[in-house]
Each structure stands twice: as structure tokens, then as C-alpha cells.
Amino acid sequence: MESKPDKKRILVLHGFLHSARRYQRLKKDLETLVPARVTVYEFPGFGSTPGKYRKQIMLHYQQDLCKYLRENRFDCIIGHSMGGNLALRAAAENCSRESLILLSPEYGGIPLIKPFIVLKPIVRHCLELLKKDSRLHTFLIKLMSLVTINRFSLIDPQIVRDVQRADAHVASQLMFELAWDRWKLKKGQTPLGQVTLITGERDRLIPKTCMEELKNILPNCRSYVLRGIGHTAVAEDYEGLLRLLLGAL
């Protein structure tokens, strides 16, 4: 009897203010349709994973991810926004040889949120206040989420829960680090595996110049644009995203 081929092993890295739960539908669909074994990695300070870092959080995340990738084998890493940035960092450090699928990855900082980070303690206090479960706080979270999701009607309850469960100190510190992030790929640091870049046509958060710069430095990068959406494809055009992922996998 001919043996069945091994299932692909896929790692999913969530974005800022998201959690592993945000990607459970995607995990289920990829496991069925690829077929694959999908692991959704959750960064400390988000979802059900307690925060444990107070400073240089991106560096700690990078070190943790590199250690995890040395101990676990995957065929592909899917990373959204902050998760895409960390997937690139791991690949640059030769911790990862997997193919990468980057969903609107943060790269070279986020100019749009820099003005809000000048008063970081206030940002932290506001995030603490948003943890209260009320219609007003839900509305404020949805209003804030319009930076990353272009239609109010697409901001679902999971977005609200993820914001409310996030560690306020971790989130405010990360906003500062991501806004002023200067990390970029250096010559000779390009990932060894195939890279696929998927972005939203109307992304308000990530500058198009940063995505063009990233495409230019990545050899043989496959690039796709989902029309009419912003920064969060998994919430704004799930079927379109799934179709592109299945094609890339």
C-alpha cells in the first residue's frame, strides 16, 4: 500500500492586539483543505497568554520565536502585521528556513501611530479603561479599530475581546516599538524559503512605500493585493485570503 504523504506543518503568527483565537477558523479550514497541521502561536500579553516582558518586547518575541522554531519544524509560516515582521526577523537570523506568507507585515515603522505614542502613559491608561464591558467601551474599541479594518460592520466581537484581554502595558509599549521600528533586512539576510506577500489595497496603517521596499529586497517574492480592503484580511475578506493561501500552499 502506498503511504499517505505527511501533512504540511503551518505556523500562524497573529498581529498586534489580536490573539490565537482570531485565527481558529483559518486553522480549521487549512487543516481540512490543504490538508495540514496548523499551530497558532500566541505572543505573551495577548489572548490567554500572560505578559512577561516590560521593555524591548519585540526583541524578546524574536528570541522566543527563534528558540521555538529551532525546537519545532514547520513547512510554512503565515504572519500578519507584527507577526509578519517577527517571521522576517527569524528568517534573517537563520532560525527559519520555512516558506513565508506575510499578510500586510509591519516593516520599517508605522508613521500613522507615532503622534499617539508621545503620551504613552495615557495610551496605557486608555487601554485599561477599555477593558470595562459596556456598550460605550465596545463602541470605542470598534471606532479605534477603523485604523486597521475599513468597514465598521466587519469589526466583530473577537476584535473587541482581543483588545479587552490584552495586557495594557505590553500593548502600549509595543505600540511605541512598532511605531518607531527601524529594523530592516540587510543585504544577505533574505529568507531562504519562498516568500509570498499579501496586502490590502486600502491599508491605512502600513505605508505602500514600505511594502515596495520589502518586495524589492526579497528575491522572487510573489505579491498579491486584495481589492477594497484595509490591513486585516482575515476579518475583511476571509474568502479571498483563504483562496490566496490555498494557492500559495
What does this structure look like?
The protein is α/β, with parallel strands linked by helices. It has a domain at 8-108 and 183-248: Rossmann fold. Helices cover 43% and strands 13% of the residues. It contains 11 helices and 6 strands. It has helices spanning 24-33, 57-71, 82-92, 114-117, 120-129, 135-145, 157-165, 168-179, 208-217, 233-236, 238-248, and strands spanning 8-13, 36-41, 76-80, 99-103, 195-200, 222-226. The chain has a 6-stranded parallel beta sheet with strand order 2-1-3-4-5-6, with helices on both faces. Helix 2 crosses helix 3 (82-92). The longest helix has 15 residues, at 57-71. The chain is globular and about 45 Å long. The mean pLDDT is 91.
Helix content: 40-55%
Instruction: Output mean pLDDT.
Output: 91
Number of DSSP-assigned strands: 6
Shape designation = globular
- Return Rg in Å: 17 Å
Uncertain stretches: none
CATH class of the domain at 8-108 and 183-248: Alpha Beta
Content-based structural category: alpha/beta
Number of helical segments with 4 or more residues:
11
The fourth-level CATH homologous superfamily of the domain at 8-108 and 183-248 is: Alpha/Beta hydrolase fold, catalytic domain
Strand content range:
5-15%
Tell me the strand order in the biggest sheet.
2-1-3-4-5-6
Q: What order do the helices and strands follow? A: EHEHEHEHHHHHEHEHH
Largest sheet: 6 strands, parallel
| CATH third-tier fold name of the domain at 8-108 and 183-248 | Rossmann fold
CATH-derived architecture of the domain at 8-108 and 183-248 = 3-Layer(aba) Sandwich
N- to C-terminal distance = 26 Å
